[in-house]
Amino acid sequence: MTVDTEIETSTQPPTRPRPNYAAWVIGGLMVVAGTVWLLDVAGVLTLRASIVLPSLLAVIGLALIAGARDGPHTGLVVLGLLLTVAVAAVAVTPTDAFRGGVGDRAFVVESQDELATRYEIGMGDLRLVLGDLVLVESAEVEVAVGAGELVLIVPEAVPVSIEATVGAGEIEMFGETVDGFSVVERHVSPGFDEAPATLTLDLDVAAGRIEVRR
Fold first, then answer.
1. Is 213 helix (H, G, I), strand (E, B) or coil?
2. Any idea what the Cα angle at residue 160 is, between residues 99 and 136, rounded to 5°?
3. Are 79 and 60 in contact (CB under 8 A)?
């Protein structure tokens, strides 16, 4: 006796793979960063954290909206929250804190005619060498870095008055180091008030490090 066995096979539509939102987000962030960088190089706008961070946050928000149907995206949410905190921090930062472009810059100044009243950079390292500076009259100079390191070499023969401020980071002045938030260090050379030609320096770094030495 032959028994016919009927096998029922249930067919289900293939599961559609979940979109790779991480690749979309990374690509979007690269497009935004590259576009803003090109506009800065072309002189159309000045690269500032107040422009870059909200743009990146917008990319994260669009990615979360697009991926809402596929469930939670914890990584994107965390990244979005971090960017939101960064945007809020930038909102309370002085508007000129990140002016001056991006990249490393070095200035070597030996005469008063070459000395500018202000040196600045948005993001990067700034090195100002005044070791051989000769002054015929007193001068005041401001140096500002948004995020990065500021290295200042002061002249031996010129009395200096220095006020250095770091929003978050470290100050090393003539071998002594302090760090933390809202750090302020001051130094005045002996005989500064009686000298015929003096140099007053106002140093400011929003986030990073200041080093002053001879």
1. strand
2. 95
3. yes
CB 147 within 8 A of CB 206: yes
- Which residues touch 133 (CB under 8 Å, ≥6 apart)? 109, 110, 111, 112, 115, 155, 158, 199
Residue in the structure block whose two tokens are 């472009």: 101
Could you report the per-residue pLDDT of 117-155, keeping only the tens digit for each? 999 988 889 999 999 999 999 999 999 998 899 999 999
Nearest-CA neighbor of 36 among 53, 22, 61? 53
The DSSP symbol for 114 reads G
Please name which of 5, 7, 93, 6 lies closest in space to residue 48, comparing C-alpha atoms. 93
Instruction: Record the pTM.
Output: 0.58
Three-state secondary structure string covering 162-187: EEEEEEEEEEEECCEEEEEEEEEEEE
Tell me which residue of 92, 80, 74 sits closest to 28, measured CA to CA: 80
Given a contact cutoff of 8 angstroms between Cβ atoms, the answer to whether 143 and 201 are in contact is yes
- pLDDT tens, position by position, 35-64: 766 666 666 655 555 566 666 667 766 666
**Where exactly are the structural domains of the chain?**
21-91, 105-213
Distance CA 147, CA 209 (A): 9
Whole-angstrom distance between the N-terminal and C-terminal Cα of the chain? Answer: 106
Of residues 180, 184, 182, 201, the one with CA closest to residue 192: 201
132 φ, ψ to 5°?
A: -110, 20
Q: Which residue from 201, 198, 128 is spatially nearest to 164, judged by alpha carbons?
A: 201
